[in-house]
Amino acid sequence: MVWYTGLSQSGLGGEVIQEYNGDLNAQTIALVNIFFTYSAIFSGSNPYVVLSIKTFVKSLCDIQGPSVHQHVQCALGSDMPNWRLINACPRCLYHIEGKPALWFQLRCTMDGNNSLEQLAQKEQIGEVDGADQSMGGASKEHLDTRVNLNEAVTSKMWGIYDETGMFLALCRHSFVLLITDMVQSGELAKYPLAILNKLLDVISKDIGMGYNIGCSFGTTINKSPLGSKARSLQFAFSVGAFHGHAHLRPCQTSHLATYTQGLGLEHLEQCESFFSASNKLASSMWYMSVFHCHQAISQYCYHHDNFEAYSRLSKFLVDNYKQAVEIRATNYALAKTMNSLGIASTDVFHNWLKEEWEYLSGLKKEPKLETLQMDYYRKLVKLDESEFGKNAATQEWISYDPNNISKAFDAQDQTHRVETQHRHAIENRDDLKSEVQALETHLGIRHWWTTGSEEWEKAKEMVTMAKYQRALDKLESLVVACLFELTKLNMSRTDALRARSQVIRTAVTTYNIAASELNRPKLSWDQPWAQPAACLALDQYHNLVHAKEEIIRLNREIQLLTTSIHEETAYIQLMAKEHQQSDPLLAIQIQKFGWELGCCNDLHLMRLKKLGKMPGFSGTLLPGQGVLRRSSGYSDVWGYYSE
User: Taking the CB of residue 321, how many other CB atoms lie within 10 A of it?
Assistant: First the structure.
């Protein structure tokens, strides 16, 4: 009989540790079958197979004894605080000696997802008094309630779910940096604040973060206790290329990834791809305990980082390099466009963005002078109407004769009614006249505007345009909101939008009335940045700049990849050799750990070798002298590893 410790590097068999030719009983055969089946199925910690981990772990512990994973990590120096975060991505967090710092040391993105929900249990198993104090954590009752997304659907689920999802941060190569549970809440501001605080403490300075509400969340950061720390460590927020185009244009000019210096060709939307795959865990986690829920997520992230993200790493670098080289080749086309538009320098593009932001920021609310002029016009219109009403009431009061009142009516009551109407009309006219006089004093108007005058017609046009814009904004917001709702119900292509919404039909009627009163003005392209050709040139310029930034970063990351492959392989071999005499079994496990980490290294080197022969490649494939941080995130000790 042959006993296996696991699959070998070739995947066809395990290390033979004992051979037995005696009789086999049913229990022995069952244990061998369970052990080999577990090794085959869970090679690579594949999370997609929904089987009972607990049963396999019990059987393995009976056969193999205690786990050796912690011993391997300890032997490699990987059991220190924050080690996993510091070494999560060797391309983002690995360094080569003598190389200057790039614009952002770490480019990452974060977002929340509520697919991995966990139903609340009547009793929380395993909780003991004083657990929070011993673990140094905060109880759920004391969790912060600051929100950045106040969704009605979130509030309804709090009574059903204990953990409503997860909030995570990924680097630009899709390696998991940090994960936190969302507990009985939606996407509250405390989750990104906690992740940001950890990144600033461990990774330190020069972090560029993408977040779908990064524009408004930057204000939250500045007002929080983390504001001074984030500013001193040069932390920067951006909005992803996908979500950013749904934001207002003033936000895009200052936060969109397209216009953010130093991001390269980064879209900052890695979380959506991660959630698309991790949603497969949802069906198996509804009724799990908190421990098993965390275990499943941890196992998935381990598999994702070591077998998904790492295997795609060289492809990511190669594809981005090819894209950047293609964009860089459009330099001549940009020069031709600039010449046709009469643009002498690329500095003009930066000035355009600044001018556009200043112009659009001024349109967030109506200018004060125009607002007062429109108020004055409205008061004059009401004053004319009030004057007409006062004259009518006066005429009725003058012509009123109590003797002509029918006996069916009380003459005295009728007299009081006419007199009261006349008095109210005079009071209303006097009140409006006082308001008109106050506005005239404020605006410096010597003679009030009359119907048909130039000032009257100009103010009338402004009031009509404002009414039209408000009707259009109301209609647009209602239609977009309803379309989002119907899309979630898979009804966006039916007649439900037309049939069910009386509110929208009312808004359409209001819009049609406002539009009929307006002589639509012709579009004016007074500002150069508002011209379509100029907008195209602006985006073309920034794509070209980002392509050059991307090539610089990719040249560094390609050398980092070759360096880390060389030095990590050498380091693991060195550690295995050091433990060969003192603990040969641990040395074997260290070698197996190295095989697992390096299963894709040959593929990476082959892809990079082909890239090195491509026209336009300006980097190097030779490994440098790497620096690998092996210590706590709160110190700055660096170790050098070479064979």
Answer: 24
The CA distance from 55 to 41, in Å, is 14
CA atoms within 13 A on the CB side of 377: 21
212 within 8 A of 229, measured Cβ to Cβ: no
Which pLDDT score, from 0 to 100, does residue 641 have? Answer: 33
Give residue 465's Cα distance to chain centre.
36
pLDDT (0 to 100) of residue 554: 92
Closest residue by Cα to residue 258 from 239, 273, 237:
239
Q: How many CB atoms lie within 10 A of CB 346?
A: 14
Q: How far apart are CA 227 and CA 218, in angstroms?
A: 9
Helix or strand holding residue 113 (H, E): strand 106-113
Instruction: Tell me if residue 389 falls in helix, strand or coil.
Output: helix
Grouping H, G, I as helix, E, B as strand and the rest as coil, residue 557 is helix
Could you give the domains of the chain?
A: 2-67 (no CATH), 92-310 (3.30.420.10)
User: Whole-model pTM?
Assistant: 0.65
Per DSSP, 9 falls in state T
What integer best gives the mean pLDDT of the chain?
73
Q: Check: CB of residue 177 under 8 Å from CB of residue 304.
A: no
- Cα separation, 177 vs 201, in Å, equals 13
Instruction: Using alpha carbons, select from 296, 340, 90 the residue that is nearest to residue 179.
Output: 296
Tokens of 569: 């392989």
- How many angstroms separate the CA atoms of 220 and 441, rounded? 42
Strands 95-96 and 106-113 turn out to be unpaired
Angle in degrees, CA 372, 374, 379, rounded to 5: 95
Instruction: Tell me the percentage of the chain whose pLDDT exceeds 90.
Output: 8
Q: What mean pLDDT do residues 310-325 have?
A: 93
Burial of 163 (0-12, 13-18, 19+ CB in 10 A): buried
Pairing of strands 106-113, 207-210: parallel
Residue with tokens 């017609």: 457
Q: What is the pLDDT of residues 525-537, one digit of tens each?
A: 567 777 778 888 8
Q: What is the pLDDT of residue 500?
A: 52
Residue 389: name the closest of 417, 420, 421 by CA: 421
Q: List the structure tokens of 516.
A: 């009929």
Q: Which residues pair with 108 in a beta bridge?
A: 171, 209
